[in-house]
Amino acid sequence: MFSHMEEEQKKELITLLAGAVLWAAAFLLPEGLWRTLAYIAIYLFIGFEVVAGMIREAREGEIFTEETLMTLATVGALILGEYPEAVAVMLLYRVGEWFADLAVDSSRESIRALTELRPDNACVLRGGEWLTVPPAEVQTGETVRVLPGERIPLDGEIVSGFTTVDTSALTGESLPRDKGPGDELFSGCVNVSGQVEMRVLSEENDSAASRIMRLTEEAQSNKSKSEDFIRRFAKVYTPAVCAAALLLGLVPSLITGGWSTWVHRALVFLTVSCPCALVVSVPLSFFCGIGCASRHGVLVKGSVHLEALADADICAFDKTGTLTTGGFRLKKVTPEGVSKEELVRLAAAAERFSSHPVARCVAQEAHEDVPARLIYEKPGMGVKAEVGGKTVLAGNRRLLAAEGVEAPDIEGSVFVAADGTFIGSLVVGDDVKPSAAPAVQELRRMGFSKTVMLSGDRPQPAEAVGREVGLDEVYSSLLPAEKVERMQKLSQSGKPIYTGDGINDAPVLAAAHVGAAMGGLGSDAAIETADVVIMDDDLRRLPRAVSIARRTLSIAKQNIIASLAVKFLILGLGIFVTIPMYVAIIGDVGVLLAATLNALRALRA
């Protein structure tokens, strides 16, 4: 983390280290004027930013802030002649602020990678010629040509050609979809195999890719942000303490005439009320918790997100690449009238001639060199080949129907026919991650009320994965906008974590109470939009991160309660008796030290 510090953070660190060295060196000076001037100079060197911040906020109408109380308390210590303590308190405060700033990634570009969804050019038919123009210049109703390997520039309907389309960028679906005339294409998807011509149905601003970008921006702007506890507390605590100190110094002095005694008590009151134990230990607790999570393979982008992670009580998952590996394999073989081995042998031999991802997966199952000859390949449908003297069809239902073969209503990614007779189907899919089911079980044990899948995949594979993992609910065939709507409904009944990995997950990651991205396989957009990144794609990291977050929040609350209890005790006594300054220092620095040591416990899982 330190190696990735911004230049300003490095300069701040150098300033703090220099201040600490100067503070220690000042002890070597003999007591007297020079030592006093040295401490005042060091105080100004370290505290200038805090004092300047107080002045800036006062100009904006924020008079009683954390900087205000810190300045008044340390100036009070200077007035009382406690120069080393005043400098130490200001230094420790600055250190805590630096740690808090370092822990928060303030430069997250959450939607940068989404721009890759939209191609720079579109090939449009005008005046009988194909012209290359920016997608923004294409009008609804015009015809656009998309070649194999190109990203679809606009939403449209195929008017000619067959192809296979990789829709994973939008839907997260693992298997490419076969498309033909009359089928709709969405911008941002990749044309895998065949050349197609399509009629444009919507302009660029209304395309699927543009909608995803807008959804992400809106979800981020609407996402509730927890204010820092100390700032919220200081809005009440600071003016109350200042008013109490003023009254303690003035009212009894006016009545008794003992100005020296009561002003001393007021300054002690102000000094011991300094919230440095809170402003240092609370951010430090979260910083340590973030560091602990990082050592366990989870990057948390700031204390606000760690706190949100501790509060979460619902967990939703994407399917492909999150609960599953995202890689294809032959999962099921359903023969009809032949053996499984014969069905696989014929299908694998025929599929060798196709570049379709599913076909390549089936072709890998060929364990012998079966003589085969390609008769034809129809993009988006399948292949017809001669295999060992048999005419074999391997593809989707549409291919078999075109050849007069009826396929029964059974599950299948590839349907196979030999010599005009249907002989079975093969199911190709991806495997469930070994860590998925244990992670879900652990989340349920930790008190999560519901575990849900939000997937763009088809119902059948999505529900199969949901059953295997042990999820409570499965929602399939969801587009990004529908995922956001479903997440909003979940948010009405709890505080959901959403875990995903694709560009299509960016809007729902931003809309969730906590967005968690799979770092190893996840897209740049998902990682940048998420609040939490699981660095090695092991889902068991997620419940571990929740456990670390809950423990960190517990430690932070302990520091808040203990610090306030000690301070209010000393403040109460200081009203009735004259407390020596060293007691005020113990109540301030001693509590700070104890709270800091307690905060360091968050480093341990």
What attributes characterize this protein structure?
Calcium-transporting ATPase, cytoplasmic transduction domain A; 605 residues; 22 strands
Number of helices: 20
Low-confidence stretches: 103-115, 218-227
Radius of gyration of CA atoms, rounded to a whole number: 33 Å
Query: Percent range for helical residues?
Result: 40-55%
Q: Estimate the strand proportion.
A: 15-25%
**What class would the helix/strand composition place it in?**
alpha+beta
Main sheet record: 7 strands, mixed
The mean pLDDT is 82
What general form does the structure show?
elongated
* Cross-sheet strand order for the largest sheet: 10-22-21-20-11-18-19
Count of structural domains = 4
Distance between the termini: 19 Å
How many runs of DSSP E, i.e. beta strands? 22
Q: What would you say this structure looks like, in words?
A:
- There is one protein chain.
- The protein is an alpha+beta fold.
- The protein folds into four domains: 2-103 and 225-293 and 547-603, no CATH class; 119-206, Calcium-transporting ATPase, cytoplasmic transduction domain A (Distorted Sandwich), CATH 2.70.150.10; 298-323 and 433-535, HAD superfamily/HAD-like (Rossmann fold), CATH 3.40.50; 327-431, 3-Layer(aba) Sandwich (Calcium-transporting ATPase, cytoplasmic domain N).
- It is 49% helix and 18% strand.
- It is built from 20 helices and 22 strands.
- It has a seven-stranded mixed beta sheet, sandwiched between helices.
- Strand 13 (372-378) and strand 14 form a beta hairpin.
- Helix 2 (33-59) crosses helix 4 (83-103) and helix 7 (229-256) packs antiparallel against helix 8.
- The protein is elongated and about 115 Å long.
- Mean pLDDT is 82; it is low at 103-115 and 218-227.
